[in-house]
Design brief:
alpha+beta; six-stranded antiparallel β-sheet; 139 residues; 9 strands
């Protein structure tokens, strides 16, 4: 029996190619990485919710975003536990923790044990894997 909360949804790659930019597809589907300091959300200070660009799942609250100086948007934690799945990544001659959307399995970035938050983690994400839904400050 599978647990739907932890089993990623199967998505049609052709539909994703039509819907996503080349960079978004490369990052989310092939584990690519955008160049540092080039992502649209690297320096963004807008309040809101960061969602998966593939399935629109809520991933990170802007309140958890911080300037890590690494060139990628960084967060101290998920908007809710279990939104991000972790996988051991042994590529490029190192061992890291890959971060994937727990709903659709999109590659998001990596998690490192050097963050400033209470959990001591830094979720180093690719802007190409995220969509910011701003909070309407007029309310």
């Amino acid at each position: 029996m599978t647990n739907e909360a932890t089993t990623p949804k199967a998505l049609n790659k052709n539909d994703l190619r039509d819907r996503l930019t080349k960079e978004q597809f490369e990052v989310t589907q092939n584990g690519g990485t955008e160049r540092p300091f080039t992502g649209v959300y690297c320096d963004t200070k807008t309040n809101g919710m960061y969602r998966c660009i593939v399935c629109d799942e809520e991933l990170f609250d802007s309140a958890a975003k911080f300037d890590s100086g690494t060139g990628w948007p960084s967060f101290t934690g998920e908007s809710e536990e279990g939104r991000v799945r972790r996988i051991v990544d042994r590529s490029h001659g190192m061992v890291r923790t890959e971060a994937r959307c727990n709903t659709c399995d999109a590659h998001l970035g990596h998690v490192f044990p050097d963050g400033p938050g209470p959990g001591g983690e830094r979720y180093c994400m690719n802007s190409a894997s995220l969509r910011l839904e701003p909070i309407d400050s007029a309310n």
